[in-house]
Amino acid sequence: MGEEGTKEARVGGQEAGYLFEFKPEGVFLTVYPTAESTILYELSDMRQILHDYGVNDYDILTLAKTVRTSDGVPVKLSENYRLPSEEEQADIDAGLPKKPTPADEADFAGMSVDISSDKLEVTVHFDIMKGTRVPTPKMIKDALKDKGVTYGISDSAIEKGSKSLEPFVAAKGTAPVPGKDAYIDKKYDLSHKGKPKMVDYDRVDYKDMNLFVLAHAGQLLAVRVPQTQGQQGTNVFGKAIPTKNGRPVPLNAGKNTEIRDDDKLYAKIDGQIVEEGKRISIDPHLKISGDVGVGTGNIDFVGSVEISGGVEAGFIVKATGDIQVAGGIAGAEVEGRNVFVSGGITGQGRGKITAHEDVRAAFVENGLIEAARDIYISDVVLHSTLKAGRKVIIEGGRGLITGGYIAAGEEIRAKSVGNQAYVATRLVVGVNPALQQKYQKACREFKEDKQRLEQITNVLNTFSKIDISMLPPNRVDQINALTRSQFPLAGKIKRTETELKKMQEELSKMEGGKIRISDILYPGVSVTVNSILRNFQSEVRGCTLYVDDADEVTIGPY
Questions:
Q1: pLDDT of the residue at 430
Q2: How far is Cα 363 from Cα 379, in angstroms, rounded to an integer?
Q3: DSSP 3-state helix, strand, coil percentages of the chain (rounded to 5)?
Q4: Of the candidates 115, 178, 123, 129, which has an alpha carbon nearest to the alpha carbon of residue 154?
Q5: Is the pLDDT of residue 12 over 80?
Q6: What is the distance between the alpha carbons of residues 132 and 110, in angstroms, rounded to a whole number?
Q7: HSE on the CB side for 148, CA within 13 Å?
Q8: Angle at 269 between CA 325 and CA 275, to 5 degrees
Q9: Which H or E element spans position 48?
Q10: Which position has the higher pLDDT, 386 or 44?
Q11: Is 381 helix (H, G, I), strand (E, B) or coil?
């Protein structure tokens, strides 16, 4: 009870949000409910009031619970209290702190300083079994000093921690930061290899299987990002914590690649990107195991292609280099520098073989072949269209041409042409089919451009006699557009004229066309040599067909 008998005191009230009542039967605290967002006092304020009235034997947890509950119900905190003297009351009213007594010092909670195993964090814990008063910031700092903690001490954390009995982190060290390893930043993605290409509406195109990733000469393939230095740390004792620097990674050039500026890898040639261990290479050669079909999709490759199987109908194989097909080609589109087919070619009414140089195959049936240089067929050509810039050679095996259209710039050579049923077969030599087609197209464009330029010139001549300022703006714009267009059109006509002269010279050189038949030329075959036509109504054996001085197709010995 109070040491002055029946004297009582009250601190606070409804407006303050709390009420302390110091009565003969003990110390009571009432905490009134308030709005959630309203903070009228701190727990430390409650403890200061109890301290001012000499209350040291209360349960801090009971005090905290009463403040947290805030239900307006009086709670007894202690039996004893001491009313302050007049001098002490004056200090309290003036807001001065009360000087601690030895008894007060003994009432401080116990304190332990725990240091983490990595020496990067210091946590302060309180033991209320030894007392309920929170040690002062100075006492906490002295405890840290006793433990040897000198680095990373947080004054704000200690100030806040001295207002409650909850554990808190009083100091933190600086963790070391290891350096980052160097790495190779690849400018391509091989993860989609062998997966069909995505098209619109989440559909996939199984004719585009992404079998390879292409690169072009001079293309940047990879960049080496260098390693970084690590940053050492400092523990709470002020000691340095060592760290590790990042490890270097070599940038290795593979076949047909080169390193520039020490850390950049470039392709030296066109081809597919190949990773061989840690090396990045460019392979100008693509190998396809099996057939080109649903399993591979279409092929469009920068370099040469080797196919161990065949090419199925409806698929496309294109390459800037040679294409080698171990099997056959059936109703497919194949285009390359040279096309070599171990098996045969069956067009099925939709396939086409195009070579920028030569084509070689065992046989052709209902096929379409165009070669800038030569076509070599080892057995037979049946009902097909073959066009070669220089020669078509059908020798080895039966060496037979039956039906279709065969054209060559210089020579056609075969064992037999046509058959006993007089099937219509047409042979043409002395004109490069591709060059002739290009020449005819250029002639058409040349004629159309000249007519267009003449029309523009006539229109502009007409308007030159009119005061343009009197015309509406849209008509003036049309005149200006015509004026601007006539100069590039005239330049195009000039260039086309030059190209036509060159093509005419090349075509004029092809006057020595020949057709050589080592065995039989059957009736029903029509032959055009250097633009001169001759139809054969009877069988001819072992002959060479050419144009004589009389401009007639002559039959000479083989």
A1: 84
A2: 5
A3: 20, 35, 40
A4: 123
A5: yes
A6: 9
A7: 6
A8: 80
A9: helix 43-52
A10: 386
A11: strand
Q: What CA–CA distance (Å, rounded) separates 408 from 130? A: 112
Q: What is the C-alpha to C-alpha distance for residues 402 and 416, in angstroms, rounded to an integer?
A: 8
| Least confident window among 31-40, 328-337, 429-438, 458-467 | 31-40
222: nearest Cα among 201, 202, 195, 249: 249
For residue range 265-277, list pLDDT tens digits in order. Answer: 999 998 889 888 8
Distance CA 388, CA 413 (A): 12
Would you place residue 480 in the very low, low, confident or very high pLDDT band (cuts 50, 70, 90)? Answer: confident
Reading the block at residue 168, the tokens are 């808190």
How does DSSP assign 220-284, residue by residue? Answer: EEEEEEPP---B-EE-TTS-EE---PPPP---EE-TTEEEETTTEEEESSSEEEEEETTEEEEES
CA 232 – CA 471 distance, rounded (Å): 82
Q: What is this structure's pTM?
A: 0.55
438: enclosing H helix or E strand: helix 433-463
Please list the alpha-helical segments (H only) found in 285-331: none
End-to-end CA distance of the chain: 143
Residues 77, 79: Cα–Cα separation, whole Å: 7
Annotate 142-169 with DSSP letters as a single string.
HHHHHTT--SSB-HHHHHHHTTSSS-EE
Question: Is the model's pLDDT at 500 over the cut of 90?
Answer: no
State percent of the chain over pLDDT 90. Answer: 50
Give the CB-side neighbour count of residue 182, counting CA atoms within 13 A: 13
Q: How confident is the model at residue 212 (pLDDT cuts 50, 70, 90)?
A: confident
If you count DSSP H runs as helices and E runs as strands, how many of each does the chain have, helices first? Answer: 8, 43
Strand partners, 11: 20
Which phi and psi angles does 435 have, rounded to 5°? -65, -40
- Give the phi and the psi of residue 493 in degrees, each rounded to 5: -60, -40
Q: Calculate the average pLDDT of the chain.
A: 86
Burial label, 353 (beta-carbon count in 10 A; 0-12, 13-18, 19+): buried
Question: Among 114-128, 474-488, 516-530, which is the least confidently predicted range?
Answer: 474-488
**In angstroms, rounded to a whole number, what is the distance separating the alpha carbons of residues 530 and 511?**
6
CA separation (Å) from 133 to 47, 160, 509? 8, 14, 115
Distance, CA of 209 to CA of 194 (rounded, Å): 5
Q: Tell me if residue 135 falls in helix, strand or coil.
A: coil
The per-residue DSSP string of 85-119 comes to: PHHHHHHHHHTPPPPPPHHHHHTBPEEEEEE-TTS
Cβ–Cβ under 8 Å, residues 342 and 362: yes
Distance of alpha carbon 482 from alpha carbon 219, whole angstroms: 42
Residue 190 identity = L
- Pairing mode of beta strands 214-215, 220-225: unpaired
**More confidently predicted of 48 and 122:** 122
Place of tokens 């001819």: 540
3-state secondary structure of 470: helix
Contact between residue 391 and residue 412 where contact means Cβ atoms under 8 Å apart: yes
Contacts of 16 (CB under 8 A, 6+ apart): 40, 41
- Report residue 359 CA to chain centroid gap: 38
